[in-house]
Amino acid sequence: MHHFLIALATTPSPTPTPSLRPGLSEDQVTPGTWGFVLTAFIVVLTTFLIVDMVRRIRRVRYRAQVEEALTAEDSDGDAGSGAR
């Protein structure tokens, strides 16, 4: 298998032509403008989704920290009032 890959890598293509094969047009082998627009839209949408997800995760962490602080404050307050 390894020898086959080396042979493929070192063997030049039999007909190096800069043009398309007969019967093919430029639109059939390239994504075109609509392909670029769709890909750019997906990238922008994914970026916004990631930013929104990070913001939501951060908000949940802060709420958990505030809740822990309030719980610790309540337990300290209860322990202080019971000692009097």
Count of distinct strands? 0
Amino- and carboxy-terminal Cα gap: 84 Å
Per DSSP, what share of the residues sits in E-state strands of 2 or more residues? Answer: under 5%
Taking all Cα atoms into account, the compactness measure Rg is 32 Å
- Number of helices, where a helix is a run of at least 4 consecutive DSSP H or I residues: 3
What is the 3D form?
Answer: elongated
Describe this structure in words.
It is a single chain. This protein has helices at residues 2-10, 26-29, 32-82. It has 84 residues and is mainly alpha-helical. It has a domain at 46-76. The longest helix has 51 residues, at 32-82. The chain is elongated. The N and C termini lie far apart (84 Å). The model has no long low-confidence stretch (mean pLDDT 83).
Keywords:
single chain; 84 residues; mainly alpha
What is the fold's blueprint, element by element?
Elements lengths: L1 H9 L15 H4 L2 H51 L2
Give a quick rundown of the structure.
This protein is mainly α and 84 residues long. The protein has three helices and no strands. The protein has a domain at 46-76.
